[in-house]
Amino acid sequence: MKERVIEGNSGFSICTRRGFLTGATSLAAMAATATGAVAAPGKNRELDDNLILLLADCHVAAGGGTGSFAYRRLQYCIDSALGLEKIPHRALVFGDIAGTVGPKEDYALSATLFRRLEDAGVEVSYMMGNHDRR
What stretches of 42-132 adopt beta strand conformation (E)? Predict the structure, then answer.
């Protein structure tokens, strides 16, 4: 099925339900706290027990590297969450982390981004999706 792409002002494309859910995650996090973002995300941020980061259908493929749309979109969502005044205490990753069929290289590339959440003290839980095989 061919995806219909709509360009937004941010420079990121939002396409289909999958693209919308992944791209809108950071907006939902900011709306839930109504605090906005501040500079220098890092480990010393206060965790908000009432805030949970939801990520789904990341589809990061190692073949695309760090310049791929999927990688940059996930990076943007994580940067936005870590840029909040109070960061989420937990992140739930609802499957389809891998690009297509779950080669270990896809997970290794995604882990570089998820590790940033863990290093900031965010508890990350992963669920398997139909594209995940590990």
Answer: 46-56, 86-94, 123-127
pLDDT tens-digit readout, 23-75: 555 445 444 444 444 444 556 689 999 999 999 999 999 988 999 999 999 99
Number of domains in the chain: 1
134 in a domain, yes or no? Answer: no
Q: How far apart are the first and last CA of the chain?
A: 26
Distance of alpha carbon 59 from alpha carbon 106, whole angstroms: 8
Residue 59 resides in a domain? yes
Query: The whole model's pTM is what?
Result: 0.67
Instruction: Give the domain extent around 116.
Output: 5-127
The helix/strand count (H/E) of the chain reads as 3, 5
Q: Is the dihedral of CA 52, 107, 77, 129 positive or negative?
A: negative
